[in-house]
Structures are given as C-alpha cells and as structure tokens.
Task: structure prediction
Amino acid sequence: MVLNLERSKYLYYMTVEKALDDNIITGDESKILSILGKSLYLEENIQQEIMNSFREGNNSFDFDLDKVEEPGIGEFTAYQSALIAALDDEIITDDEWALLDILRELMVIQPNHHSMIEQSIRSRAKNLDGEEKLVNKLDRFLSRGL
Result:
C-alpha cells in the first residue's frame, strides 16, 4: 500500500485533535485511533509522539502542506477500517461519529466513494460470521446520514 507518511501523520493528528474536543479519549475513540494508526502504517512511536504532544500541550506539529494535500493510495481502506471499528459494538456514539466525519472531510470522501466502501463492507460481511449483524449496523449508520 502506498501511503504518504506526512499525510498519514496529518490525518492521525487531526483525528486525535477531534477526539480530544471534549478533553477525553473514550474507549471507542481509542479503538478507532489504534486501528486508524495501523491502517495508515504509522509506527507506534509516531502515534505515541502525536498523543504526547497533545498531553503536554505542545500540539503544534509542523506539516509540509504540499505533502499533506496529496492523497495516498489506501486512504479509503483506512477509513473503511475505522468505520468497521465503529460498527463493532451495538451503537456508533457521537464521539465515533465525529471521528468518521473528520476522516471523511480530510480524505475528501465523496458519496460515490462512500458507496463503494459500503459495498466492500457488505461483500466482506458475507464471508464473516454474524454477517447480518454487521450489515444491520451499517444500515443504521447510513440511516443517520452522511
């Protein structure tokens, strides 16, 4: 997978910043952030460095804006992984919803792209136990609107 490291760090940073809007990272948010970091191929030390920058109040990473604006191949897969993580339990919380919103915005995921992601999740669910449950959760998520 070809991901732009600078953009991956930026996406993770901005998502952590959104998670900290209420000054706390919930268990659900933590799960999404962990999966997102792995999906963006960020090493744990980079993820930790970003988290520590917020904890220490030094949350001013400098990003190369030219590199940050170049989308990387594989970003939609990272979003899909975050969405599946949010669908894992019985409800998508407002906190999880906010993280998915910021990712869609930053990754510029258009409705047609989201439809492809949804279809991929549905296809994947057919090969898993509990397929109906995952699809029902996806449908509830989509009924809320993007």
In short: The CA atoms of residues 8 and 42 lie 7 Å apart. The two ends are 27 Å apart (CA to CA). Helices lie at 5-19, 27-39, 44-55, 65-68, 75-87, 94-107, 111-126, 131-143.
